[in-house]
Every structure is written in C-alpha cells, then in structure tokens.
Amino acid sequence: MSYPGYPPQSGGYPPQAGGYPPQPGAYPPQSGGYPPAAGGYPPAAGGYPPAGGYPPAGGYPPQAGGYPPQAGGYPPQAGGYPPAAGGYPPAAGGFPPQAGGYPAPSGGFPPQAGGYPQPGAGGYPSMPPAGGGWGAAPGGSGMPGGPQQGYPVGPTPSQPMPSYPGPSPGGVPANPQAPAIPKGYRGSIKDFPGADPLRDVEVLRKAMKGFGTDENAIIELLGNRTSKQRVPLVAAYKTTYGKDLFRDLKSELTGNFEDLVLSMLKTPTQFDASELREAIKGAGTDEACLIEILSSRSNAEIIEINKVYKAEYGKTLEDSISSDTSGHFRRLLVSLCQGNRDERETVDISLAKQDAQKLYAAGENKVGTDESQFNAILCARSKPHLRAVFHEYQQMCGREIEKSICREMSGNLEDGMVAVVKCIKNTPAYFAERLHKAMKGAGTKDRTLIRIMVSRSEVDMLDIRQEYLKTYGKSLYTDISGDTSGDYKKLLLKLCGGSD
C-alpha cells in the first residue's frame, strides 16, 4: 500500500499539486512540482536535509487533513529525534532521504524506521494534537523544555479515543487496562507515618529506665504501630543499647499486659508457632486453638508456620500434633497443617452438588459416619467452593451442615469439624463468636483474647466488630472494657480500634 499522491519515483520527491516551491540552490523545479511559498525548505549545502536534522526551525507548514501548525513545531533536538524500536520517530540524525522518496509502509501506523508518514490512508489518525501532541510525555508538552518519551497512553479530556489499527512493536498499546482497585483494608491498626525504629526504642528505653515504668508510653507506641513497624524494634533495641528488649520488658511488666506486649513484638508467624506450641505442650491440649489457627490461615502462612515451628522447637508441627492427639481428630489436624488446600477462586456448581451429595451419603444417609469423606472435602477444597457445597447441602437435605455434623460426630472431632465449617462459612463471625466465648461467664480466657486481638488487628478486625455487634447486640469495645482492666485493657482497646 502506498500513500495517496506519493508514488515511488527515482531521483527525488514525487510531483504533487500545491506542494513545496522550488528554491534557488536546492532541488530543480519540475513540471507540476513545488510552487514557491514563503517558509518552505531552506537551501542547504550539499542538498537535503539541512544540517542539524529535519525539520527546520519554524515547524511544518499546514497540510490538508494533517497536523495543524503548532508554535515552534516539533523542537529540533541535538542529532534529531531519538530512535524508537520499529516506529516513530526514526533513527538519530533526522529523517534521511531515501531513493524513491518516502517509503510506503505496509499497514500504515507506525511507519518503519527511516520514513515519515503523511496523514491519509494508512497513516496517523487525523486528529489535532493536544497536550503536546504525539510523541510528548503523557500530560506533557511537545514544546521545547520537556523530553519526548513516546506516545501518550490515551486522549486528552474532551477528545475522543482515536481508533488505532492495533498493537504493533513500538506503537500505541491497544485498550490500555486500568489498574485493579485494591480491596479496602479491614484492619484496625494502620502504619504510623514516619515511624523510626531508632526513635521508637529510645521511647521504650526511657519508659523502662529508673524507678517505675511508664506504661502509657509503651501503650501509645505499640498501639499505634503495625506488626512490620513493631518487629524491627527488637533488633534496633539490641543495636542501640546492647540489651534484649524481651528480657527488659519481662523484668518491668507483669501479667496479661506483659503477655500482650510480648505477643505484639513477634512476627505473625512466630506468634502463631508459639501459640500452637503452647496449645500442644503440657497437660491437656487446647484443641480449639489448633483448629482456630490451622483453619483460618492461608497455605503460604501455614507453610511458614511449619518452618518456624521446626526451627524453634526442633520437631515438626505434624509430629507434635500426632503425638498429642488421636483418631479422626488427629487426621483432621494433620490434613490442615499440610497447607495444601485448593485456593482457586472459581466455583464449579456441578462439582459443589456432587460434594454435597457425598457428604450426605457419608453422614445423614447411612448407618454410621464416613469421617474420612468429611475430612477429604473439608480440608482439600477451596473456601469459595466449600461455601457453595454448604449451600447445596442445605438445599438438598433441609439442614445446615453443622447440624448434621453434630448429629453424626462427637467430642473433639465434632468440635473441630464444626469450627472448620464456621471459619470457612464466615471467618469474621467465627472470630466474633470465639471472642464472645472468651469473655462471657466467670473468668476470661485471656490467651484466646490476646491471640485473636493481635492476629486479626491487621486482617479483618473491622469486620469482626460488625459481626460481634450484629450477633450480640453490644460492641466488642464495650465488652472488652467491661471484662478487662488497667493497662491490659488500654492496649486491647487500641487493637480493637474503636467502638461501634
């Protein structure tokens, strides 16, 4: 394909009515060639192009259907336009002439290196340049003073999107995609702007020096830092003072406040590993804690917990669980601690119906219970898929899956399976229930309260607060205030983030 009015012709530019004028000392006039007009091509020693590259100062003369003149035109740059792979502008040194005139690039936009297309069929879309024109930086200017950095990614306001022929090397990308909108942050603790670990450890040191401890300074500092801002304080403290921050805090603080402060200085993975260790060791096992952590963490988090647990305690988490539990409950925990759950977001409804039928056949629809079938589906399938399975199950047999589990199982296995189902169905509602149970009645399960408030404060605490208020008619903030006291209460309320 060739441009209208530009047939290849050996020896110079093709004749074109209304074109450029002949000038003394330059190209000889030809029949039907360039009529005289002020501001045309200047003579240049040795022929075309003029020294310093193309175009000459003053810019392009206007052409029908083409680019309107701009003050100053395209500014000349040292050595001409910089090269761009496969397209506009051509190689350094300006637009060199080629035998036979301008080349006719196939497909039009963009032109091949060495040629410059004129507006028309196959060339640039006929639209006036705005905001600097083609070649200007996005939102920038084609005038001198701003480097030219390729094509703009879209039209300026009040200008329609041009219809590009499609993506090509060095060309304008077709249909640029807007960045995905991130999901809103649902934690109650946010990064403190400008936090400096060296300044923060100085505050902690002053709070612990001398007679008495300034607990309020510790609460204000730790209660306004995210985990990634708190954890570096341990190394910064040792670097600055040559002392262990954990040891100094233990010597100054006591009780639940001490436990809460030390928990907040561990990484989330270290904290989970230490909580699992506490749940397993000693007389009795905190089965609810094991289920809570293993059913609510992602595969990547569980794999990291396994690594830290092995490094800290010298044996694998699976071995610890196996030696402390038994039967189908042991199998449930071992399955969960593999960190191998399907994490795809897509849901196949036909497969969800099949799984619902399998669960029905393994429980309600037979004498006895096939616990292995429940284990296989609850521990391996993705959470969105399982939510669909639970819905299909209820539609099919008229009973919620938790009720069926309670009818078919007992003891730790029943509690464990129900907890897994609740956590998958609605994680914030599951944690709201755990918090309510930790505080209601005589005595408070402080370990559970501390663990959930610390571990969920940067994940979904705002959602947990909503579920708590909806389910129990009181805000989580109010219940924590009524069930705890002193510095311990103040720091817990910082993690809570506010009343609803």
TrEMBL record:
GO MF terms, alphabetically ordered: calcium ion binding; calcium-dependent phospholipid binding; phosphatidylserine binding
Q: Which UniProt keywords apply?
A: Annexin, Calcium, Calcium/phospholipid-binding, Repeat
Mark out the compositionally biased spans (Gly residues).
130-148
Recorded hits in Gene3D superfamilies, A to Z, give: Annexin (1.10.220.10)
Residue ranges, compositional bias (Pro residues): 154-170
Gene Ontology CC = cytoplasm; nucleus; plasma membrane; vesicle membrane
Q: Which GO terms describe its biological process?
A: cytokinetic process; phagocytosis
Biased-composition ranges for Low complexity?
1-20, 28-48, 60-119
| A Pfam family of this chain | Annexin
Q: Which SMART domains does the entry mention?
A: ANX
Q: Where is this region: Disordered?
A: 1-196
Domain statement: A pair of annexin repeats may form one binding site for calcium and phospholipid.
Describe the family membership recorded for this protein in Swiss-Prot or TrEMBL. Belongs to the annexin family.
Q: What is the protein's name according to its record?
A: Annexin
